[in-house]
Write a structure and sequence with these properties.
The chain has about 400 residues and is α/β, with parallel strands linked by helices. The strands form four sheets. The chain has a seven-stranded mixed sheet with strand order 2-8-7-6-5-3-4, sandwiched between helices. The protein has a three-stranded antiparallel sheet with strand order 9-12-11. The protein has a two-stranded parallel ribbon with strand order 1-10. Helix 5 packs across helix 6. It is globular. The two termini are about 40 Å apart. Bound molecules: 4'-deoxy-4'-aminopyridoxal-5'-phosphate. 4'-deoxy-4'-aminopyridoxal-5'-phosphate binds next to helix 5.
């Protein structure tokens, strides 16, 4: 079979695959603990649901303008004013089917084949593949050994004459690290000076802990005119627990938004009108659910830290936000895929191998589930990996005997 060069270069989304494996095992009645997931377990806001019902009842569900409905764009404008202290207009906004699609459309609008895009390592699994889909080259930038906080010089060192853009995701998937205000200020200034596009993937920006304050990259931009290369990405998936609704957006200069709309117009056209209604409902509705999710996740993070700190050999940096911990398990093995496979196979705990985010020896553990799941999940991982654990473990009635270490 003849497959394109780009097609052949794209790997499967491992995080989605792990979700699938866990779901299949669960459906078979297996006692799976899901520490692999990237979605909150809380319900979507009631305002999101209510706002769709009238439209659904009308049974007139039509196309929307390519860059989003007026209602949804207005909601994004209000959101940008409230959380970024920045006034924008409808021409500055595009709504897509998830932050994923809007990042993809943006990259297609700015990249030529062979262009390079820099992003800190570890990175969100989809960045390299999205960049490759444009025929461009992903350039991960490692920080100081063992640090999840990039420094400007780490990015600077990777810049070549082919560099077109930088992607920053803070707080970060997979580490939970929220980059300092100083770093954000420096990177905004640096990209402006070098004429580079800067994509701020802010999908987790409200899910932050320890009294940390929201950071708006606009505060550090000198040029926010029509040639600004700053692009801010956000969406409803994480903060409103609306992953299945598939709505995300970008705010950028009008010329770029127009090009992105042209591309989206031929790919998927406007996102579903029902889902945009729901997203606008969530943004315009009562925000207490976001705060309650944030508090739950902060508490879950604390429990995860307690459990992992009691686990000899595992090194962990306390996450500042998100619902992930990126823990260094390298004392138990360098091959994170092997480790992750062993954990699902032997003790039915789903995790994501660090290599998918560019770092071996690490596992990404999600704190989206219940406290019980976190405690039981880490207990099973410890039993499976640590040779000093007792030889037997009970999962409910089932007795497991460790015969692999
Ligand atoms: N960026 C990051 C860093 C993410 O973690 C995710 C979701 N896992 C996305 C973008 C995509 O979000 P959406 O569901 O809106 O497509």
């Amino acid at each position: 079979m003849s497959i394109s060069i780009i097609g052949k270069s794209i790997g499967e989304s491992v995080t989605l695959k792990i979700n699938e494996i866990a779901a299949i095992l669960k459906a078979k009645g297996e006692p799976v603990i899901h520490l692999g997931g990237g979605e909150p377990k809380t319900k979507s806001p009631i305002d999101a649901i209510i706002s769709t019902t009238a439209l659904l009842n009308s049974a007139e569900i039509r196309y929307t303008p390519v860059a989003g409905t007026v209602e949804m764009k207005k909601a994004v404008i209000r959101y940008t004013e409230e959380f970024y202290n920045r006034k924008v207009e409808t021409g500055n906004v595009i709504v897509s089917s998830g932050a994923k699609q809007v990042i993809m459309v943006c990259l297609q609008a700015i990249l030529n084949p062979q262009d390079e895009v820099i992003f800190p390592l570890p990175f969100y699994v989809s960045y390299p593949e999205m960049i490759k889909l444009c025929g461009a080259i992903p350039v991960p930038a490692l920080s100081k050994e063992g640090s999840f906080y990039p420094r400007l010089k780490d990015i600077e060192m990777k810049v070549t004459s082919y560099t077109k853009a930088v992607i920053i995701n803070s707080p970060n998937n997979p580490t939970g690290a929220m980059y300092s205000e100083q770093f954000i200020a420096e990177i905004v200034e640096f990209c402006e000076k070098k004429g580079l596009y800067l994509l701020m993937d802010d999908i987790y920006h409200r899910l932050i802990f320890d009294g940390k304050k929201l950071i708006s990259s606009y505060d550090y931009a000198k040029d926010l005119g029509e040639n600004s290369k700053l692009i801010v990405i956000n969406g409803v998936s994480k903060q409103y627990a609306m992953t299945g609704f598939r709505v995300g957006w970008a705010v950028a200069n009008k010329k770029l938004i127009k090009v992105m709309s042209n591309i989206q117009g031929h790919q998927t056209a406007g996102p579903s009108v029902i889902l945009q209604k729901a997203a606008a409902g969530a943004i315009n509705g009562i925000q207490s659910q976001v705060e309650s999710l944030r508090l739950t996740l902060e508490n879950n993070r604390n429990v995860m830290m307690q459990q992992l700190n009691a686990f000899d050999g595992v090194k962990i940096t306390k996450p500042d936000g998100t619902f992930y911990c990126f823990a260094d398990f390298s004392v138990y093995g360098k091959d994170s895929t092997k480790m992750s496979n062993l954990l699902i196979e032997k003790v039915r705990v789903a995790t994501v191998p660090g290599i998918e985010f560019g770092m071996e020896g690490y596992l990404r553990l999600s704190t989206c589930g219940s406290i019980k799941d976190i405690i039981e999940g880490v207990k099973r991982i410890k039993w499976a990996l640590d040779p000093n654990s007792p030889n037997e473990l009970y999962i409910g009635e089932r007795k497991l005997v460790r015969d692999w270490i």
